[in-house]
């Protein structure tokens, strides 16, 4: 890892380099997609070097993403540029909801019934209760599957829904990933609350690693109704940490983008409508927490 990241290695950022293909996905989602989707290969290489990824690893990862239809390349003179494919752009927009909008509150369930037993794999967060019955949390982003669709709520006091959810959705692993995120980044929040001074390059490096780790945790979370989780479930704490650090780093991080990142038209904008909208949404989320805390404090008897 670069020394710029190593100074906070104790609980502030993971010491090992991330996997290159997954990290490039994070980089495009956080920095490039809201600024048009195209980036010069040289900017990719320079940014990834801060995270211990060599030029050869980056080039290999780019080739794999091109082969998978996630990136599209073009060459102008001696320089290569890569942009998101249309399909990947749609995926990024959907994934950005997990990062920049408050998690939805899921209150009930979707059931799918089929006349004949089914064995095909289901899209997350659907799981099978039996060969003829599948279940998923009822949210706007959960698409129906083939079969007779129904909605349901658990009757109070009937059955152990928490144990069922823990088994079917592997919530022990989800919890571990959230806890790892908290362990890696809690120290950075403590330092940001102190008198630490970061350069724009360091701020962007930490924000990218923050997004990379939180995205991994949030994508694995099926976001079930609250009664499925124990009181110490770490998702809310992880969410608050992510939002607070992201907002705290963004001014400097976006300055680095404007100074160091190039596409085929020149320098990427440090700020635009989309990047400002993202930060505004997160600040509104913080404001809602503060308002709720004041209300509960005022009405506590």
Itemize the secondary structure elements and their pairings.
Blueprint: H1 3-6, H2 20-32, E1 38-40, H3 41-49, H4 55-67, E2 71-76, E3 79-84, H5 86-100, E4 109-113, E5 127-130, E6 133-137, E7 148-152, H6 161-168, H7 171-192, H8 200-220, H9 235-260, E8 262-263, E9 266-267, H10 273-298
Antiparallel strand pairs: 1-3, 2-3, 4-6, 4-7, 5-6, 8-9
Sum this structure up briefly.
This protein has 301 residues and is of the alpha+beta class.
List keywords for this structure.
301 residues; alpha+beta; Arc Repressor Mutant, subunit A; 4-stranded antiparallel beta sheet; 3-stranded antiparallel beta sheet; 9 strands; PaaX_C; WH-like_DNA-bd_sf; ArsR family transcriptional regulator
Can you describe this structure?
With 301 residues, the chain is an alpha+beta fold. The chain has two domains: 3-103 and 169-298, Arc Repressor Mutant, subunit A (Orthogonal Bundle); 109-152, no CATH class. 52% of the residues lie in helices and 13% in strands. The chain is built from ten helices and nine strands. The strands form three sheets. A four-stranded antiparallel β-sheet has the order 5-6-4-7, with no helix packed on it. The longest helix is centred in the C-terminal third of the chain and has 26 residues, at 235-260. The chain is globular, with a radius of gyration of 21 Å. The termini are far apart. Mean pLDDT is 89; it is low at 7-14.
């Amino acid at each position: 890892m670069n020394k710029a990241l190593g100074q906070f290695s104790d609980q502030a950022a993971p010491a090992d380099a991330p996997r290159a293909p997954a990290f490039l996905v994070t980089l495009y989602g956080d920095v490039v997609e809201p600024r048009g989707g195209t980036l010069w290969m040289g900017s990719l290489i320079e940014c990834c070097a801060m995270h211990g990824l060599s030029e050869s690893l980056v080039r290999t990862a780019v080739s794999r993403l091109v082969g998978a239809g996630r990136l599209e390349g073009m060459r102008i003179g001696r320089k290569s540029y890569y942009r998101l494919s249309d399909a990947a752009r749609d995926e990024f927009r959907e994934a950005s909801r997990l990062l920049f909008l408050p998690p939805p509150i899921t209150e009930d369930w979707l059931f799918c019934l089929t006349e004949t037993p089914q064995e095909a794999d289901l899209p997350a967060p659907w799981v099978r209760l039996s060969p003829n019955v599948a279940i998923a949390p009822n949210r706007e982003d959960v698409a129906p599957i083939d079969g007779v669709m129904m909605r349901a709520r658990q009757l109070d006091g009937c059955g152990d829904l928490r144990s069922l959810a823990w088994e079917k959705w592997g919530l022990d692993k989800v919890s571990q990933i959230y806890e790892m995120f908290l362990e890696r980044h809690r120290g950075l929040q403590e330092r940001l609350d102190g008198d630490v001074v970061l350069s724009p390059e360091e701020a962007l490096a930490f924000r990218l690693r923050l997004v990379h780790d939180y995205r991994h945790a949030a994508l694995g979370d099926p976001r079930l109704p609250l009664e499925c989780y124990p009181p110490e479930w770490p998702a809310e704490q992880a969410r608050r940490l992510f939002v607070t650090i992201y907002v705290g780093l963004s001014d400097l991080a976006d300055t680095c983008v404007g100074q160091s990142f190039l596409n085929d038209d020149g320098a990427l904008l440090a700020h635009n409508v989309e990047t400002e909208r993202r930060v505004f949404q997160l600040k509104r989320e913080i404001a809602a927490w503060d308002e709720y805390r004041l209300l509960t404090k005022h009405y506590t008897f």
